[in-house]
Write a structure and sequence with these properties.
Strand order of the largest sheet: 1-2-3-5-4
Largest sheet: 5 strands, antiparallel
Length: 171
Amino acid sequence: MGTEGSTVLEPLWRGLPHLDHSTVSGSATCALPARFDAVKSARDFTRETLQRWRLEGEFDTVALVVSELVTNALRHGLTAPPTPVPDPSSPVRLDLMRWASRLVCAVRDPSGAPPETTNNCTEYGDFTAESGRGLCLVESFSDGWGWHPMTGMMRGKVVWALFRLTSVRPL
């Protein structure tokens, strides 16, 4: 991750439990177009990255969270609905960062509006609903999540999820 990545994610470091960002052992970024098949691209990117980092055992959980965060960015973070044709500006980005025993996935989009859960995640809601459970799933399957608005020249927000790694193998 270059200077842009560290600047973009600087508020993330303040929102996470103490992680020394100078000790990141791996990072990868994927630009995603404004169309719903970008969710599959994000999962494929996550699979390839976790394989490269020898974290295949984490894929199912991380991919579920990545899918929910990217879907939310596409559904709620864009001013216009995703279109079936590619958008060359790639308004949504997925960042994966690995430390020795932790992984963070962060999805940024151009909307400054905070993410919203429609159900209280600690109570049983309508689990047959078509939408509104995404962030409850993120909360359930990650070890923590949050968001922050972008600062400076970049507009929008970053929504992130933290995972404690269970299948850690050296790179």
